[in-house]
Amino acid sequence: MSTMSRSRASLSPAASERSTLPMGESAGPGSPAFKPLEPTREQLLNHFFERFKFYTSLCLGTSAILAVFAFLFLIPFVVEPAIQTILAEFVPEAGICSVSEHVHAETLTNCTWASCREGCTTAHTKCHKIRVNLSRKPFVEGGPIPTEWDETDLRFLINPEGCGYPPRVNCSVFANDYAGPKAPKIFPCYYSLTRPDLVVARYSWESTVRGLILALVLPAAVFVFSLSVLAYWHCRCCDRACNRRVHAESFTSKEDSKLLCELDEDPSDDVF
């Protein structure tokens, strides 16, 4: 069995300017008898693959780094709030709420909590504080106002986090819709089974779970895929193991397969 060589063909000026003259004859580059050899189809394909491999590796490495930063960014903004919302166990069917108190407070000491905040990482000096009465009966559009309430003066938040970013969250519009002059007397709200003092205006189990899954799966999938391709292309151990398995399957006897593995492990066979 002949020794298997794994050297790569590449395009170089020396390879493309070899003369086609018979042995023993020579001609200068300006001579009419000098005919440079054109690169073969295999050399062109190898050259194209090397360039494709380089730029693709660069893109995959950048994607892997961005996936890590995206995951770290999504933890405080999506992952942690979604987990807290799931643990709060909000009822899927809305109850009945009615505003019992609305205060437009100012200064940091008076805004220790707020029904709505535009921005989840900054402190606010102006805030809306809304409290509601709660009836756990299912909300019916146009239904009567309850005469008895199950809970009174509960904190009313725009969503489980109590904050958000424009244009999805507008605290002035929220306060006007629920505690303004034209606000309805009763409206649907969602209460927590594990936190009795928490009532929210917006809640969706499907949206919460979908956001959590996307925040976990997408960055992880991009990172694993990019790292796997880079390891397959550039990790010497992975390349040897894959090539050894593929070539060994083409040999029928164990002796041939063993000999092939010994040739792969021989460092003198490497061409740099």
TrEMBL record:
Source species, domain of life: Eukaryota
Region: Disordered, residue numbers: 1-35
GO annotation terms (biological process): regulation of sodium ion transport
Alphabetical keyword list: Membrane, Transmembrane, Transmembrane helix
Transmembrane as UniProt keyword: yes
Composition-biased stretches (Low complexity): 1-19
Residue ranges crossing the lipid bilayer per the database entry: 54-79, 212-233
GO cellular component, one term: plasma membrane
InterPro entries: TipE
GO molecular function: sodium channel regulator activity
Pfam families according to UniProt: TipE
PANTHER family linked: IP20336P (PTHR12335:SF5), TIPE PROTEIN TEMPERATURE-INDUCED PARALYTIC E (PTHR12335)
Name of the protein in question: Protein tipE
Naturally occurring in which organism (per UniProt): Parnassius mnemosyne (clouded apollo)
